[in-house]
Amino acid sequence: MSTRKDLEDAAAQMAEPLAAQVAALRADLAELGGHVAKIGKDRARGLKAAAGNTASEGYAKGEAAIDVLLAELQNLEDEVAEATRRRPFASLGMAALFGLLLGALFRR
Question: What span, in angstroms and rounded, lies between the C-alpha atoms of 108 and 104?
Fold first, then answer.
């Protein structure tokens, strides 16, 4: 019949391999965590670079659109100036009419 001492010795013998396996699992999990962190950092760097490129492209497109708009406004200004030179009295009448309309709208 087994005594308490024999049972404790048997349990200790069984616990030693389990403790070694647990230590090995902890080491493997730590290594896996390091790999996951490295992959996450690499992915974040890539996404940051892609976002920077997209922002730069958007900024360039916005500047191009503003340049086109400014050119169109300059053309419109030139057309208005030319029409004013060709028909000064008609332009003066249009300006007066526009002023009266604005006055009537804001008076209310």
Answer: 7
pTM: 0.50
CA distance 17 to 28: 16
Domain span including residue 94: 4-107
Burial 81-104 (b: 16+ CB within 10 A, else e): eeeeeeeeeeeeeeeeeeeeeeee
Contacts of 84 (CB under 8 A, 6+ apart): 91
40 token code pair: 């996450």
For Cα atoms 88, 89, 90, give the angle at the middle one, nearest 5 degrees. Answer: 95
How many domains does one find in the chain?
1
From CA 55, how far away is CA 39, in angstroms rounded? 24
Question: Which tens digit of pLDDT belongs to each residue from 4-57?
Answer: 877 777 777 888 888 888 899 999 999 999 999 999 999 999 999 999 999 999
Yes or no: say if 91 and 83 are a contact pair by the CB < 8 Å rule: yes
